[in-house]
Specification:
- By secondary structure, the chain is an alpha+beta fold.
- The chain is built from 12 helices and 14 strands.
- Strands 1, 2, 3, 4, 5, 6, 7, 8, 9, 10, 11, 12, 13 and 14 form a 14-stranded mixed beta sheet that branches.
- The longest helix has 20 residues.
Length: about 375
């Protein structure tokens, strides 16, 4: 008998956050999210509650927690696409289809009560939240920014009636610097000069972020606004995201291109991989845990590509190659072994073509699943 319980008490919230730690106890590929960040999902610190309704469920079997799931009504996104969708997120379960069915039924019933037609995911509150279910690359170490899942998860989703909506691809990029890179560097100087652009520099990270954060998020909204699942960033959400990641950002791996008015027209940045450091502390920010994270930031062996964005008026002018080349050129200096890309939508061919200029492999694939609660609405 599967019992589904809505998460409401402080004790339930901790159980919801801590369940994956138990489920993935012996999994070498799993990387814990920061426990503090996950607990903040339930607090007033989560500014997304201004635009979202949420629900959280735990599944019990024989008195033991065996699964969890959350549902999100992202109102801004629904207005944007003019649809009635519910996102599911933080789905984790033992390998038991009855547990999965009970969890998804709870979210689907909640969706129907709210008059929704579609459930899809995994998707978070925004595009920088965890998204996509791993369907290839189960033997690869997860990055800190993404969610790992066992290989039985996709089958559970399919047995619950979910089908593919869209896939994302991920790549490993290996540092090289030869004749091609030298040519790009020469071309970069010409392009920057032609359009009166320059690469912004700074020595103080706090001042640099404060100066260019507004422009960077403007570029994100412009470059990514039409892509699947993307939600515009409010000022409060921007500040929340910066506060979450600023400790892990290094100016060594940020490229910001500005025009003659110091307006950001393109950017790209990578984050030193935190995967192994977070694994050791199981996502807890103990004094030792913080020390490990800071060491990983200062002595990276792997770099996670976070985002690359270009204003539309500068598309097809070579700026992505300039950004990537600038970052890749710095890798040997810091003895970085390889980079991991973020999630590339399967139909985003321009960004995938960029990786062809480097030694690379496509090593992971993720999927967003969808289920129509009202088949009459399907395809409308």
């Amino acid at each position: 008998m599967i019992e589904i319980k809505e998460v409401k008490t402080k004790s339930d919230k901790k159980k919801f956050v801590d369940f994956p730690t138990k489920l993935y106890k012996n999994c070498k590929q799993y990387v814990h999210p920061l426990r503090m960040d996950e607990l903040n999902l339930f607090s007033e610190k989560n500014v997304s509650y201004e635009d979202c309704d949420t629900v959280y469920f735990l599944a019990y079997k024989n008195g033991q927690i065996v699964g969890r799931i959350a549902g999100i009504e992202q109102k801004i996104y629904n207005q944007k696409v003019n649809e009635k969708r519910i996102r599911f997120t933080r789905f984790d379960s033992i390998n038991d289809v009855e547990v999965a069915k009970a969890l998804f039924k709870a979210v689907e019933d909640w969706a129907r009560k709210k008059g929704m037609d579609i459930v899809h995911g995994p998707l978070g509150f925004n595009d920088l939240d965890r998204e996509g279910m791993l369907i290839e690359g189960f033997d690869e170490l997860a990055t800190f920014e993404e969610q790992y899942n066992y290989s039985y998860y996709p089958e559970l989703l399919e047995k619950c009636g979910y089908k593919k909506e869209v896939d994302w691809l991920e790549y490993k990029i290996f540092p090289t610097y030869g004749e091609r890179e030298k040519r790009v560097e020469v071309l970069a100087e010409k392009v920057l000069k032609r359009y009166n652009l320059r690469i912004a520099t700074g020595k103080n990270k706090k001042k640099f972020i404060e100066k260019y954060k507004q422009g960077i998020f403007e570029v994100i909204d412009e470059a990514y606004g039409d892509l699947h699942g993307v939600v515009p960033y409010t000022d409060k959400l921007r500040d929340q995201i910066i506060n979450q990641f600023k400790m892990f950002i290094s100016l060594n791996f940020i490229v910001t291109i500005v025009d003659e008015n110091d307006r950001v027209v393109a950017f790209g940045f990578g984050i030193p991989s935190l995967s192994k450091a977070v694994q050791k502390s199981k996502g807890r920010l103990t004094p030792f845990g913080i020390t490990r994270l800071l060491y990983a930031v200062k002595h990276p062996k792997v770099l996670d590509f976070a985002l690359i964005g270009i204003r539309k008026q500068y598309l097809n002018k070579g700026l992505p190659a300039i950004v990537l080349n600038y970052i890749m050129k710095s890798l040997p200096k810091y003895k970085i072994e390889y980079c991991e890309t973020n999630l590339n939508l399967e139909y985003n061919i321009p960004i995938q073509n960029q990786w062809k200029n480097f030694d690379h492999i496509q090593h992971k694939k993720r999927r967003c699943y969808i289920k129509y609660l009202n088949e009459n609405k399907k395809g409308n």
